[in-house]
Amino acid sequence: MCLVRNHRAGLLCAIGCGSCLLLCSCARKNTSIDAVKTKPEIPVEELYAKAEQLMQRKNFKSAASTFEKVQEYYPYTTLATQSQIMEAYCRYQSHKYEDAIDLFTIFIKLHPHNKDIPYAHYMIGLSHYERIVTVERDQRATIAALAAFQTVLTLYPTSDYAKDAKFKIDFIHNHLAKQEVSIGKFYQKAKFYNAAIQRYKTVLKLYPTTEQRKDALLEMLNCYVKLDSKREFLETYEILKKNHDDPVLLKKAQHLYDTYILNSKKVQDRKKA
């Protein structure tokens, strides 16, 4: 697999430099004279059918290897092109997500006008999506999945994959918003209230339709209380009341208003008296 990955990396690099035609026929493996000599006495249609049968039996590892052989032995056929995307799918089903991403990326670069390009972008997103981790950890896979799904939605809005791409984008937005709130609460606990507020504002700006918006607004109120920032508190309080009807949320916000704003007024009135 190391050799396979090295060849894939080399192919991706070479494509970027405009050397696609040279490397297309020898992608991922040494297509040497010896390899040609060992070409099986089996027509391309039968070899491809064998790969499909293995895939249908959910033997994805063997299916991927067989689709790879179609490309090696019959590189200039239509079935070789189809085998590229089928191999990528089998790698995905085998949980070899990095390999799948590499293969789908190569397919897109080699065949930019192929009918399966929307599918390839979608599967790149899905391969990253499968590697999304908890909000406490690095979100690089989450960001990469988001970019791929947004490509599907932007460039291929009528494709069969647009609806699910939109669903997964919504999930990812909520996931990233959770991370911002989690970091904000960490800063808040450490009494870095301004830093926490910036995280909560990021939620309002980038992920305004997520459930985390409510949590962000409420925690902003708590931070403004700690900072004794009445103007900012009242502005945020009005935004919360205007845009949300969650009774639990409103009750908590009202409690903060009563204990902070009303009590402050009472103290001021006593001082005047």
Describe what this molecule looks like in 3D:
It is built from 14 helices and no strands. It folds into two domains: 1-111, Serine Threonine Protein Phosphatase 5, Tetratricopeptide repeat, CATH 1.25.40; 185-272, Serine Threonine Protein Phosphatase 5, Tetratricopeptide repeat. The chain is 77% helix and 0% strand. The longest helix has 28 residues, at 162-189. The termini are far apart. It is mainly α and 273 residues long. Helix 12 (212-227) runs antiparallel to helix 13 (230-243). The chain is elongated.
Please tag this protein with its features.
273 residues; disordered N terminus; 77% helix; single chain; mainly alpha
Content of β-strand: under 5%
Distance between the termini: 82 Å
Q: Give the count of structural domains.
A: 2
Low-confidence stretches: 1-7, 13-37
Work out the helicity level.
over 70%
CATH topology of the largest domain: Serine Threonine Protein Phosphatase 5, Tetratricopeptide repeat
Instruction: Give the number of DSSP strands.
Output: 0
Number of H/I helices: 14
Oligomeric status of the shown chains?
single chain
CATH architecture of the largest domain: Alpha Horseshoe
Tell me, briefly, the overall form.
elongated
- Give the biggest beta sheet: none
